[in-house]
Specification:
The chain is of the alpha+beta class and about 210 residues long. Helix content is about 15%, strand content about 45%. A hairpin with a 6-residue loop joins strand 9 and strand 10. The N terminus is likely disordered.
C-alpha cells in the first residue's frame, strides 16, 4: 500500500511537471509567433567551459517568419549565413567557400531555427523551461544536437529579444547581446536570398539527402 501511495504521488508530480513544461513551450511559441520580423546588431562573446574568454565578435541579424534568417558576422572574421526558408547558405569569404544546406535539417544541429518556425514536429524534439528572464531550450533524449542549451532572454514585458546564450557539446558558450533592435517591421524577402559569388568553392550538402 505504501509503495502504491508513493508511486501515485510520483505519478502526479511527474505529470504536473510535464504539463508545466508543455505550457512553457506553448508560451514561448506564442511569444515567437507574434515576432514576425526581428533585426538587430549584436556583440558576441565565446567562452570555454572554465569561463575564459576565447573570442569577441560583432555583426547583425535579421529574422523573418517562417524560417528566414540572415546572420552576418563582421568581426573578427567576415561570415554570412542566409536562409530563404528552404535552403541555407553559409559563406566564408576568407576561405572563399559556400556551404549549402537544407534549412529544415538545421534543426537537428541547433534549436536556434526554432525562433523562426511553428512546425510542431520540430518543436517536439526539444524541451522548453521558463526561466526568470526568458526560456531555456534543450534537446530531448535521443535527439542529435551540437547544442546542449539555448537560453533566450526577452526584454521586459515584450517580444523583443534581448540576448541569446548557446552552450555546445564541448562546453563552450556563445552569448549574443542585441542592440538597436527593431521588431515587426517590413523586411524584403530579397534580404534572405543569396547569390553564390563566381569562383568560390561550393559544398552542396542538399544533394546527398
Amino acid at each position: 500500500m505504501k509503495f502504491k501511495s508513493i508511486a501515485l504521488v510520483l505519478g502526479v508530480t511527474i505529470g504536473a511537471m510535464s504539463q508545466a513544461v508543455a505550457s512553457d513551450a506553448e508560451a514561448l511559441k506564442s511569444k515567437l509567433k507574434a515576432l514576425n520580423t526581428f533585426q538587430a546588431d549584436f556583440k558576441q562573446q565565446v567562452k570555454d567551459e572554465d569561463g575564459t574568454l576565447l573570442q569577441d565578435g560583432e555583426g547583425n541579424i535579421a529574422l523573418k517568419y517562417p524560417s528566414k534568417i540572415r546572420w552576418e558576422q563582421t568581426a573578427p572574421d567576415e561570415t554570412l549565413l542566409v536562409s530563404d526558408g528552404k535552403k541555407t547558405f553559409y559563406f566564408d569569404s576568407f576561405a572563399e567557400q559556400v556551404t549549402v544546406m537544407k534549412t529544415a535539417g538545421l534543426i537537428d544541429t541547433t534549436p536556434f531555427v526554432l525562433l523562426t518556425t511553428q512546425d510542431k514536429s520540430q518543436w517536439q524534439k526539444y524541451s522548453v523551461e521558463k526561466t526568470e528572464v526568458g526560456y531555456r531550450v534543450s534537446p530531448k533524449q535521443n535527439v542529435e544536437s551540437q547544442v546542449e542549451l539555448l537560453d533566450i532572454v526577452f526584454k521586459k514585458q515584450g517580444i523583443e529579444i534581448d540576448s541569446i546564450r548557446i552552450k555546445d557539446a564541448s562546453g563552450q558558450t556563445s552569448t549574443f547581446k542585441f542592440a538597436n533592435s527593431k521588431t515587426n517591421l517590413e523586411l524584403d524577402d530579397a534580404s534572405f536570398t543569396f547569390k553564390i559569388p563566381h569562383g568560390v568553392v561550393i559544398d552542396d550538402q542538399t544533394e546527398s539527402d
